[in-house]
Every structure is written in structure tokens, then in C-alpha cells.
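Workshop exercise sheet. Pairs work together: one partner reads the sequence aloud, the other fills in the structure field after running the prediction. Swap roles for the next sheet.
Pair: D.N. / O.F.
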Amino acid sequence: YNEPIKLAHLLNFNDMNELHNDWLKKIMFSDDDFTLLSHRGSYKTTCVSIGIALMMVLYPNEAIFFMRKTDTDVIEIVRQVSNILSTDLFKEIVHMIYDVDLFFTDRSAYKINTNLNVSNKGAVQLLGLGINGSLTGKHADIIFTDDIVNLKDRISKSEREHTKLIYQELQNVKNRGGRFINTGTPWHKEDCISLMPNVERYDCYSTGLINKETLQSIRQSMTPSLFSANYELKHIADEDALFSSPQFFNDDKKLFNGVCHIDASYGGSDGTAFTIIKQIGDCFYVLGKRRDKHVDDCLSEFYLLMDKYKSGTIYVELNADKGYLEKEMLKHNRIVKSYNENMNKYIKISTYLRANWSKIYFHEDTDAEYLNEILDYTENAQHDDSPDSLASIIRELTGKGKWLF
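Structure field:
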């Protein structure tokens, strides 16, 4: 009860400290709803897994409901809780407390029940669900939400509203006298975090878990909003950015018979950005993909997307590779149009992309990382592959060298 951290150490989570001891105690013993916001790599989700396993032992007749953004994320945590309960340590704890041998009576990718549960409610001890799962008929004494707000909520208003709606529906899942335990990261001033009560924040500067050198390396490896949200627990205001509030569509046919652009990476910190675009009237319909890989490792995936959307010409820049990428794609019978880049990147992006921003619609399958890189773009941005790719192909479609405003 006083030092659950010792159990974490016995489970080989040796980097956890007194801060995590406090988190574990609040997770397990607080009478009120509790919201924990902490930076990535702070072991908050590990605390959730250990806390759930301990609660299943200490409160075996209470139903626990666990929600994350996706089903895959839920499966990961349910598996970790199952593994913790399967250890000799937990079997010994159960034997000491109840004088019985611990075993599972129901165990799957989404739920766990043990022989400790003797409640007549008919509910399993732990049930997990992704945010798009059905809540009909679900009831629980303790509800965990973990990272139900993510990068998609920063980019899409509809995603933010959907997440908030689901969180509000969870109020009906909670049994009388039950409580919420929320863990996560804020992404937008109007995201679901704004609805959560009793918030405690632990940013990368206050926990002491990451040294200055490592933190600087992390900062340089990602866009400003990613670092700000994941490590400083802040969001970057849209009004300070060149681009905000992207528009979306989901009709594949609007991309058919379009053209493509590849902003290639040949190693280092840059990524490979891939854009499919179709101009219809004054509007541009876009599918964007971004990969932290060498371009050679991306081409097979890009070819499949081109075939799916019946794309034609691929535009590539000659400057960086002296024609290597063009030759490589010609070997695969692709139609390639190369060009020498002579325009300042910031001028190109702030001209062609910004001037057309209100006319651009992104396919819902566009990578969040692709969009985030555009939304984060400034003249001093360290990562600009995605906005550069989109601006370059819009320039080709609207007339090379023409000033649009």
C-alpha cells in the first residue's frame, strides 16, 4: 500500500522511482477522478499496467474498463497486464493474501478474468476497447483512458469532437461511486484533455527522467509540435503558424488520374515525402505519405499507391541525386518528369502552398506525420519534406514560376 514501487522493481522495471510510487498510489487508492499528463518515456503507461494488475488483486470484484485510441493499442496493454499477473511474484502475492492459487478463468486479447472474481455481476475484471468500439451495455467501476487523444486530434476538428463524444459517453459506463483515471498528452486547446478533471502535469523538465543532452537530441529529431506536445505538454497555437485547419475528403475517385511528387531522403535526419494530387477546377485533392526511410525503401509502397489511385507522372527533383531516382523509377516503367530546383524553399512553400491552402483537401488516409509537418512549417523548420513536396507539385500544376499573389 505504501511502496508499490518495490513490486515494480521486482518485476524488473528498475528505472521507476519515487515519482512513480506516487503515481501508482494515486491510480490505486485515490477516491476521486484523476488525470495524469506526463511526457513520453516517463513510464506512465507502465504505471497503468502495474496499477491495473494490482487492482485486480486488491479489488477482485470491481470491473475495470480500459480504453485507448486503437484496438491494437488496447491489445498491447491487456497483454502486459496478463503477463504481470502470470509472474511468480503475483501468484505468491495472491497466495499470501487469499491462500489460493491464482489462475485465469477468461483471457483474450481484450479481456481478463481470474478466479479471484466472485462477483455476481457477470462482468470480467478487465475489459479493453478501442475508441471506435461499441459502449452499448458496458458498465464498470473503474474506467481508464490512456492516450485517447493523439496527433489526429491536433489535425482534425472532427476527430477532436468524436473523441470528446466518446469520453462523454463513458460517463454512462461508470457505475455509481466509480471513478475515472486518465493518462495522456494534450494536442489542441479544444481536445478531450480539456474535459478531464483533476489534472496533474509532469513535463520533461520537472521529472528529471531525461538528461539535457538526450532531450536536445530528441528535440532535433521531431517537429516543434510533436516535441511540445509529447515532452513539454503544450500545444502550438494555430494562429502562429502559416497553415491551420486542414480540410478533408474520403472519396478515392477524386484522386484518380492525378500526378505525384517524391521528396526523397538519402539518409540523415530528413524523411521521404510522397504526394498524390489531382486538380479539379480550382481545388486540389491530396494524399500524402511520409516515411523516415531512405527513398529506396519506400518505392514499392509508393508504386502500390500509384496503381491504386491510377496515378500518372511522377515529379522528382534532380539537384540532390544527379538523376539517380529518375533512372531507378524508369526501370520500373514509371513516367518520370525531373526538374532542377532553383527557388528558395521558404518562398516556394509560403507562395504556392499558402496561396492555395483554402483550396486543398486531404484524403483521410493522409499520414498524420505528413500533415503535422505542414502545420508546423516555419522558415526555420528543421523538417520540411512534406510541405516542400506539396508546394513543388502545386507549382508544377499551376504554372512554374508564376507568382500567385
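Discussion prompt: Residues 401-405 have pLDDT under 50 and may be disordered. What would you look at next?
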